[in-house]
Design a protein that fits this description.
Pfam families: DUF220. By secondary structure, the protein is α+β, with helices and mostly antiparallel strands. The chain contains 9 helices and 8 strands. The chain has a domain of 162 residues: Alpha-D-Glucose-1,6-Bisphosphate, Chain A, domain 4.
């Protein structure tokens, strides 16, 4: 019996007669395929823990970034602050608990005299190393997903830490899911090394600074607040951080105490830098005063000798009081 001959036509490139599946474009696709698959796995890992990346901000989840829909742009919100910059920064509220098997669960809250959009711009800015002094170096930054108001970013950086007379650096490699729709930012470590878990989330919620002008009516939504203040009411931000740190092996005391102190101190430094940048964006005496306070705090942190640290701290407090006394007559 005669064997049947089978022929197959292979598409050829018009340019040099080579098969199309060997074209440069196809070869480039094959080279990029492993990276694309790796990125998909990273995103899947992040989504698994966050259950589809649900909204963490119930207030803004209902309004769908209503500030944009109402035509209240960021510049108008900042202008309201420039016209009335009076704002006193309160110290952040930082609580550290110790869940079983973990080093610490840190929760921090602070009110910032700046609109949510502006605060979110600072936190998600790729160049925010200039703001946050504990970021020593950004080793790599790759945007894996960029859809509308949501981005998933792979970030690796070196961070500075300081506690009492000790200081050093630590490498951090995290996957960050940032969503401007609800002003949320979730992060999770990429590779498990000596840290079994390093994850958490930031959230920013609107704070109605001048809501007393609406009395006896109490606004519950952004639209109601803008209506009762004639669009001139200042909008601040409630910023919160929830972070879990779990090493592969939890160290015994007193090492664990020092590590919790480092975590708390680093978070306090981040918040102080955020407050200083918020004051700078608003402008005026309030900005200069806040920036001076933050710079003074950083000077104190650079000193290792405890007695010298306290002496400088006392001198700064006295100078701050003199600045306030000289500023009050000029304000009147």
């Amino acid at each position: 019996m005669e064997g049947r001959k089978v022929s197959m036509d292979v598409p050829r490139s018009d340019r040099n007669g080579t098969p199309k599946f060997l074209d440069p474009a196809f070869s480039a696709f094959l080279l990029q395929l492993p990276n694309q698959l790796q990125n998909c796995l990273k995103i899947k890992r992040l989504g698994k823990d966050n259950v589809g990346i649900k909204s963490v901000n119930p207030f803004l989840g209902k309004e769908k970034s209503l500030s944009t829909g109402l035509g209240i742009d960021l510049e108008k919100q900042l202008q309201a602050w420039r016209e009335n910059p009076i704002w006193v920064n309160q110290p952040p509220e930082i609580k550290v608990s110790v869940p079983k098997g973990s080093l610490c669960n840190l929760k921090a809250k602070v009110d910032v005299g700046l609109p949510p959009d502006a605060v979110y711009n600072i936190v998600t800015d790729p160049d925010n190393k200039r703001v946050f002094k504990n970021i020593k170096e950004v080793i790599s930054r790759q945007v894996l997903v960029d859809i509308g108001k949501r981005q998933v970013v792979d970030v690796e950086q070196k961070a500075l830490w300081r506690f009492l007379w000790w200081s050093g650096t630590i490498s951090v490699h995290v996957l960050v899911d940032q969503n401007r729709e609800d002003y949320s930012m979730k992060f999770k470590q990429v590779d498990a090394g000596f840290m079994k878990k390093f994850e958490g989330h930031w959230r920013v919620e609107p704070l109605f600074i001048d809501e007393e002008t609406c009395f006896p009516f109490k606004p519950k939504t952004w639209a109601e607040y803008c209506s009762c203040t004639g669009g001139k009411g200042r909008i601040g931000s409630k910023v919160s951080l929830d972070q879990l740190i779990q090493p592969a092996i939890v160290p015994p005391p007193p090492i664990s105490w020092y590590l919790r102190g480092i975590t708390s101190k680093t978070t306090e430094m981040l918040i102080n830098d955020l407050l200083a940048e918020a004051a700078r964006l608003k402008g005026g005496f309030n900005a200069e005063n806040s920036v001076n306070e933050i710079n003074e705090q950083h000077q104190v942190e650079q000193i290792n000798d405890i007695k010298e640290r306290w002496n400088l701290h006392r001198r700064n407090v006295k100078l701050r009081g003199k600045r306030l006394l000289t500023a009050e007559p000029s304000a009147i």
